[in-house]
Amino acid sequence: MQRLIKHLGLVDYEPTWRTMQSFTDSRTADTPDELWVVEHHPVYTQGLAGKPEHLLRLTDIPVVKTDRGGQVTYHGPGQLVVYLLIDFKRMHIGVRELVRRIEQAVIDMLAGQGITANGDVNAPGVYVDGAKIASLGLRIKNGAVYHGLSLNVDMDLTPFSWINPCGYEGLRVTQMKDLGVDKTLAQVAELLLPQLEKHLTVVKETA
């Protein structure tokens, strides 16, 4: 079944999240999967396991307590966010495998731009020399996935210094711009979406 790609532009976080919830709640077995490509106004999002002590200082950046997994992260202009609204049951794989496939899509895209990156089995996301370049947070409800990944492209990284990113004290963050890749969000999305499509397509083995 063909996945639909929607480019939503620069949008507020909370209404987008609520729309994801509504979409997921109203899914049927015939609902096509969708990938939403967005950019967010500055916001901290705190996952279900989020602890307030990971917000290190008060700022004028809003904090939204959301229903994805994980701790606190930052979204802002210049960061590519792809929400994965996927019928997980159709894939016939486990959650850990899903996470690995999403990470690998980012790793392969970055490799094509000359950046060597890796995942971490103990801390979901994608890293370059120990610095986090992409974050991952998912929610699975009634066999369907929502939320997704964020990739730092060309943004102000300062707000990350005001939190413990993803709950890790002193975790460094990086972005494609600082690693020598000068591309727009739209250009990066064009590179990443085919990799996501490739890695999220599960080929069933035949007898």
Q: What is the compact description of this entry?
A:
This protein is α+β, with helices and mostly antiparallel strands and 207 residues long. The protein has a single domain, classed as BirA Bifunctional Protein, domain 2, CATH 3.30.930.
Rg, rounded, reads 16 Å
Q: Per CATH, what is the topology?
A: BirA Bifunctional Protein, domain 2
What separation lies between the terminal Cα atoms?
22 Å
Low-confidence stretches: none
What is the total tally of β strands?
A: 9
> Structural class from helices and strands?
alpha+beta
GO molecular function, one term: lipoyl(octanoyl) transferase activity
Subcellular location: Cytoplasm
Catalytic activity: octanoyl-[ACP] + L-lysyl-[protein] = N(6)-octanoyl-L-lysyl-[protein] + holo-[ACP] + H(+)
Organism: Aquitalea palustris
Characteristics of this structure?
207 residues; alpha+beta; BirA Bifunctional Protein, domain 2; six-stranded mixed sheet; three-stranded mixed sheet; 3 helices; 22% helix; globular
